[in-house]
Design goal:
The longest helix is centred in the C-terminal third of the chain and has 17 residues. With 341 residues, the protein is α/β, with parallel strands linked by helices. The mean pLDDT is 95. Helix 1 crosses helix 5 and helix 9 runs parallel beside helix 10. 29% of the residues lie in helices and 21% in strands. It is globular. The strands form three sheets. It has a nine-stranded mixed beta sheet, with helices on both faces. It is built from ten helices and 16 strands. The structure holds threonylcarbamoyladenylate and magnesium ion (MG). The site of magnesium ion has 3 residues, from loops.
Length: 341
């Protein structure tokens, strides 16, 4: 058991956390997307601690984080030209590229795969911390497996208290949903998980971008998923989330017929004026960007509020909205009610 400390990101504390990493410990790390649970990607014992602290299935690979593009060639066996161009355009930032792994990455880090997901975050503190560690950093989202990802140091504390020595506090994450994960195919690039870098962003650099079918549909646990993470239950608050798709009027009609005192509504900020007084309602933004930033925060808040059932408005799936839609669909275990426009 650790007495888990939330540390201000001073140079001394960054060095302290880097020392912990070099001693084989794991720590909470901020990034622009969500907080990560960081370990030395080369240290099998440390990586094992990450899987244990999260309760994560061993076949779900970790993303390896770097502080400089140059580190890419140490981790990947081959780097296609398009990957180099994408790195130059979008790193540091919320883009993870799956590439054939070099022998330096242990199989435990890559979940037994011969590929590795690599990302260079834009977050200043993350970059300083990775540099101070002097090794690539394996870091999944710092939540207990299946729970909403953490977007504040406090969320990490709530899930990891006692299990890790320290969390570097880098304030609230600005993107709020995890990075876009892509892999490379003959025809171009396949998006395995949508995130802050959109299909249109990628099309600025590569000619062909396809969306994996697992983004919008359920992947069977027994199937071989392109991205193992897609098989597992995800982003779930304790409360049951149900998506209600349709106009605001039809949404309100449906929920008034199907609610009790412990039911909450999850709506858009621009619905505010039309929500009748007296209903339990939380708001998760208007634009897709705001919804991305707020989604996990709101899902965690609903548990704190003691919600038993949540009816959520369905977000737009355009641009960054695709990431929001992908996450909320999983938070709701694909439970969608159609009420009409
Ligand atoms: O924004 C992010 O990506 C955050 C921050 C901390 O960087 N990290 C994150 O990691 O979301 P995690 O472990 O929660 O999600 C990684 C996802 C999983 O769905 C995993 O299956 C997929 O990326 N992934 C990782 N390596 C892969 C690989 N070699 N092939 C296919 N999918 C991979
Ligand atoms: Mg995760």
């Amino acid at each position: 058991m650790f007495d888990t400390k939330i540390l201000k990101p001073s140079d001394e504390n960054i060095d302290l956390c880097a020392t912990l990493i070099n001693q084989g410990e794991i720590v909470g790390m901020p990034t622009e997307t969500v907080y990560g649970l960081a370990a030395n990607a080369y240290d099998e014992k440390a990586v094992k601690k990450v899987f244990a602290a999260k309760g994560r299935p061993a076949d779900n690979p970790l993303i390896v984080h770097i502080a400089e593009i140059d580190m890419l060639s140490e981790l990947a066996l081959e780097v296609p030209e398009s990957a180099r161009l994408l790195a130059e355009k979008f790193w540091g930032g919320p883009l993870t590229m799956v590439l054939p792994k070099s022998g330096k990455i242990p199989l435990i880090t890559s979940g037994g795969l011969d590929t590795v997901g690599i990302r260079m975050p834009s977050h200043d503190i993350a970059r300083s911390f990775i540099k101070a560690c002097g090794v690539p950093i394996a870091a999944p989202s710092a939540n207990i497996s299946g729970r909403p990802s953490p977007t504040t140091a406090r969320h990490v504390f709530d899930d990891m208290n006692g299990k890790i020595p320290a969390i570097l506090d880098g304030s609230e994450c600005t993107v709020g949903v995890e990075s876009t994960v892509i892999c490379f195919e003959n025809e171009g690039v396949r998006i395995l998980r949508p995130g802050g870098i959109t299909k249109d962003d990628l099309l600025m650099v590569v000619d062909n971008v396809i969306l994996d079918k697992g983004i919008l549909s359920e992947v069977d646990i027994t199937e071989k998923a392109a991205s193992p993470g897609m098989k597992y239950k995800h982003y779930s608050p304790k409360t049951r989330v149900i998506l209600v798709n349709g106009s605001l009027d039809n949404f309100l009609k449906y929920v008034s017929d199907n609610s009790d005192d412990e039911t909450f509504l999850m709506c858009f900020d621009n619905d505010k004026d039309k929500i009748p007084a007296g209903l339990n309602c939380v708001f998760y933004g208007s634009s897709s960007k705001e919804q991305a930033k707020n989604l996990f925060l709101i899902l965690r808040k609903l548990d704190e509020l003691g919600a038993k059932k949540v009816y959520a408005r369905v977000p737009s799936a355009e641009g960054v909205g695709l990431a929001v839609y992908n996450r909320i669909l999983r938070a709701a275990s694909f439970d969608v009610v159609e009420v009409g426009e």
